């Protein structure tokens, strides 16, 4: 035996019993392992049949253990329960019932006292009548303004035109009373003075073609300065065109104001306007 062989570790040998019916397995060749230093060692491995047998035995052991575990009789462990405690509860004494006081009786309806009789008021002394201021005098103009147009050719001769109507002035009212100083003379307003130069109203062309005629009476309020402050229709001519033409003309006129003595005052005056076609 050489020195190199004595330095190698001992090789362990396995003894595997052979099966009686099978031939002995062939010996597995040893493997040569190269180690450091240039030495070589031969290692022997167990055969494959030995490993298969060992695996089979392990499986059988586990299977038998599992079978025995399933066949065991398991009894549930008894767990001691908590002790029961019983307590007697004494019922509370019932509270005394408090009876509600009886409702007071409803008061009887009281009849209202009769209202006191109204005391008749003392008669007031009648105030002394105050002297009323004199009302403005409404007078009617003694002359009428005639709106004339040129004659138109007619198939037959016409009758002569009737003269303009004259309206007399109404007499002044007589005031009865205690004798005193004489009242001033009242002079009515005038519109026919020559110095006023009031133009006559324009005859509406349509009324002239339709040969409309008529007399319009206007009620005019004349202020102290002689200007008309209100023109009202007192009597219509029957034609609205003639009434409007007369009103438009009078609103542009100037008047001689009414006078009470030497003082000019406001007054109402009636102004007649006659629309008449010449030759009709």
Automatic annotation (TrEMBL):
For this UniProt record, the keywords arranged alphabetically read as follows: Cell inner membrane, Cell membrane, Membrane, Protein transport, Signal-anchor, Transmembrane, Transmembrane helix, Transport
Region Disordered, residue ranges: 19-39, 97-141
The Gene Ontology biological process annotation of the record reads: protein transport; siderophore transport; transmembrane transport
* Intracellular or extracellular location(s): Cell inner membrane
**Annotated InterPro entries:** TonB (IPR003538), TonB-dependent_transducer (IPR051045), TonB/TolA_C (IPR006260), TonB_C (IPR037682)
The record's section on Pfam families has: TonB_C
- Looking at the record, the residues that make up the TonB C-terminal domain are 188-280
Output compositional bias ranges, type Pro residues: 99-122
**Which domain of life does this protein belong to?**
Bacteria
Extract the Gene3D superfamilies matched here. Answer: 3.30.1150.10
A cellular component term from Gene Ontology for this protein is: plasma membrane protein complex
Q: Give the principal location in a single coarse category.
A: membrane
Membrane topology of this protein? Single-pass membrane protein
Compositionally biased tracts (Basic residues): 25-38
Q: Recall the GO molecular function terms of this protein's record.
A: energy transducer activity
UniProt lists the family membership as follows: Belongs to the TonB family.
The record describes the protein's role as: Interacts with outer membrane receptor proteins that carry out high-affinity binding and energy dependent uptake into the periplasmic space of specific substrates. It could act to transduce energy from the cytoplasmic membrane to specific energy-requiring processes in the outer membrane, resulting in the release into the periplasm of ligands bound by these outer membrane proteins.
Stated name of the protein: Protein TonB
């Amino acid at each position: 035996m050489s020195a190199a062989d004595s330095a190698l570790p001992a090789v362990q040998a396995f003894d595997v019993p052979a099966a009686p019916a099978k031939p002995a397995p062939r010996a597995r060749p040893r493997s040569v392992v190269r180690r450091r230093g240039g030495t070589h060692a031969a290692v022997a491995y167990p055969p494959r049949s030995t490993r298969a047998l060992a695996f089979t035995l392990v499986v059988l052991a586990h299977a038998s253990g599992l079978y025995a575990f399933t066949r065991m009789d398991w009894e549930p462990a008894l767990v001691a329960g908590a002790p029961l405690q019983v307590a007697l509860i004494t019922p509370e004494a019932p509270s005394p019932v408090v009876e509600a006081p009886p409702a007071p009786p409803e008061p009887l309806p009281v009849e209202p006292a009769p209202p006191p009789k109204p005391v008749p008021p003392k008669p007031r002394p009648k105030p002394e009548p105050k002297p009323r201021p004199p009302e403005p005098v409404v007078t009617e103009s003694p002359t009428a303004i005639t709106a004339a147009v040129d004659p138109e050719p007619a198939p037959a001769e016409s009758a002569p035109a009737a003269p303009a109507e004259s309206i007399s002035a109404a007499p002044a009212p007589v005031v009865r009373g205690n004798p005193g100083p004489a009242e001033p003379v009242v002079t009515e307003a005038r519109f026919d003075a020559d110095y006023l130069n009031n133009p006559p109203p324009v005859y509406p062309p349509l009324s002239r073609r339709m040969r409309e005629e008529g007399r319009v009476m206007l009620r005019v309020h004349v202020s102290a300065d002689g200007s008309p402050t209100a023109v009202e229709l007192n009597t219509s001519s029957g034609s609205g065109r003639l009434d409007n033409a007369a009103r438009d003309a009078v609103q542009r006129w100037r008047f001689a104001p009414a006078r009470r003595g030497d003082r000019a005052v406001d007054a109402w005056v009636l102004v007649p306007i006659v629309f008449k076609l010449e030759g009709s």
